[in-house]
Amino acid sequence: MPYEYPDRCRDPWQTAAMPPEPKSWTIKHFSLASQAGVPTLLRRLADLLDQQPGIEIQDVVLHDEVSADGDWWSATVYFHEPSP
Question: pTM of this prediction?
């Protein structure tokens, strides 16, 4: 017998309402880096994001670069600014 989706989810690909279309498709970004480790970097990132209410985050990329001084972690956030 095929699986029956609940009424609220008849279309399995529809998971949430789409946000309104932005006036510009330009994605902005910023990056942070830290040699103090991932937890410290993520806390700093969360603090910065808390200061930017309304931005729509598209992607967050975490990267590790090995150097002679040890691991340097960085995070890049890609986002849209809120529409006026």
Answer: 0.67
